Amino acid sequence: MRRLFLVGMAPPADGKRCARPFPVGLSEMLIALDPRHGVFPNLVMTPLLSTLFQLRDKREQLNDFLGQLTDLLGDDGKRRFNVFASVEDGLYLLSEELHAQLSELHDRKKLWVVFGYWSVAGILWSLFNPSAIRGELAEEDLVALPRILVVKAGRLAPRKLSMTAVLGVIHRLCTGDGKDLQDLELGVRKILDEKGYSAQLDRVVAALRSIVPISHNEAYQTLPTGHIQNHFVLGKVPTDSDNPELFWKYIGQAIARRLVSEN
User: Residue 140: which of 91, 84, 88 has the closest Cα?
Assistant: First the structure.
């Protein structure tokens, strides 16, 4: 079984304003996906509980996964980190930990649950530019990358899709088999050929097959309830005739499947 990591976007806003949350026995500094922050019950606990639910009848896999929970949920956040060190005024500063962790992602021994469109965009930029000097990226450097991948992979025209639906398509490319994998390879190859990036095709594809992109807080906060979740699950604008899988079950199925997958 792969080792699971939880990957957020950036430190909470109050980390910049005051830097020191009320400690309540924890670190005096905010950490990635901080247990005191509102993202913890939604972003952290929902995919973990859903994965446990999917593994409930697979005793050996369940025990292996239970053995990872201490590091995933620990107050020190050993298996949690952010893609960006800071986001301010349209500038995105990639984190040192992303750079360190990304160098090993292609070995298929780890699995990252990555929260949100912008986090995936930062990972894509880093994969396509492995030798680039890291620094602050402008919003325009990032915003189009997930949409470009969707187009090059031969999926729906991105102008018709919300950011959440685009993220849902990328989720399928990264976690699905058969045509999903073929389309991912096609999309990455076209981007590398057309943009002249220095990255190697097999390393980029292997790394993307080691992430499970899922929605950020918009999945739980946007009204009407469940609507934006359906954008993600379906990878398109939902209609009244659609009957998609429940979001929480859908992401748990993907995580459980990818934890034991070798491709």
Answer: 91
CA angle 99, 39, 47 (to 5 degrees): 80
The amino acid at residue 258 is R
Task: Please tell me whether the overall predicted TM-score, pTM, comes out greater than 0.90 for this model.
Answer: yes
The Cα 190–Cα 201 span in angstroms is 10
Spell out where 9-143 has E strands.
80-82, 84-88, 91-94, 110-115, 136-138
What's the structural domain count of the chain? 1
Within 9-135, strands assigned E span 80-82, 84-88, 91-94, 110-115
Quote the tokens at residue 95.
């984190």
Summarize pLDDT for 245-263 with one digit per residue, the tens: 999 999 999 999 999 998 8
Enclosing domain of residue 52: 3-259
pLDDT digits (tens, 9 = 90+) for 167-215: 999 999 999 999 999 999 999 999 999 988 889 999 999 999 999 999 9
Q: Which of helix, strand or coil describes residue 69?
A: helix
